[in-house]
Design brief:
By secondary structure, the protein is an alpha/beta fold. It contains 6 helices and 6 strands, in the order H-H-E-H-E-E-E-H-E-E-H-H. The two termini are 19 Å apart.
């Protein structure tokens, strides 16, 4: 079990991270806390260590909630911004580096799929080699049929973590953030 004090410090750090990127919680924006911080960290470890991706792209603002864990593990995070309700997408970084690369989009959820469709359309000009998405929120709220067909793989904690190793994931989380936030 992760000590409550440490979990609170991590959640506060995630919130500061998102605010440091210029985002504020409010109407049309989900709270800047991960649904399950331990699972978010475990998924970031799994996906950054897999060698499957060349680039990590947070779909801002909420993608930075989960992108925090990727950045803490050393992944260079790129960003696009979508408004709410989703009407446009804009690059926040130079995305020419995505050309022919394997890109993992980091987002909290897919409901109608409009945000991801806007992002996929926007990224087309940069000619990524492949797109996948990590959705940080629980599977129960996801509307997976609305993930655009251009996205080759969808990663969810419930489908990709070994829940029998939860205790080991909690220990790794506590050790990492116990040192990192000291």
């Amino acid at each position: 079990m992760v000590p409550r004090e440490l979990l609170d410090r991590v959640l506060a750090a995630v919130r500061r991270h998102c605010e440091g990127k210029g985002y504020r919680e409010g109407a049309g924006v989900n709270n800047f806390v991960p649904h399950d911080a331990v699972a978010a960290f475990a998924m970031a470890r799994l996906l950054t260590g897999s060698g499957r991706f060349d680039h990590y792209l947070a779909v801002a603002p909420e993608g930075h909630i989960y992108g925090y864990f990727f950045e803490r593990l050393g992944a260079k995070m790129l960003s696009v911004f979508t408004d709410y309700p989703p009407t446009h997408c804009e690059s926040l970084d130079d995305l020419t580096v995505l050309k022919a690369g394997r890109v993992l989009l980091i987002e909290d959820d897919v409901i109608a799929g409009r945000t991801l469709r806007l992002v996929v359309a926007h990224l087309g000009q940069f000619s990524p080699g492949s797109l996948a998405v990590y959705l940080g929120h629980t599977k129960g709220i996801q509307h997976l049929p609305n993930v655009p067909h251009e996205i080759a793989a969808t990663y969810l904690a419930e489908d990709h973590l070994d829940w029998g190793k939860r205790e080991a994931d909690e220990k790794a989380f506590a050790e990492f953030f116990g040192r990192a936030l000291s």
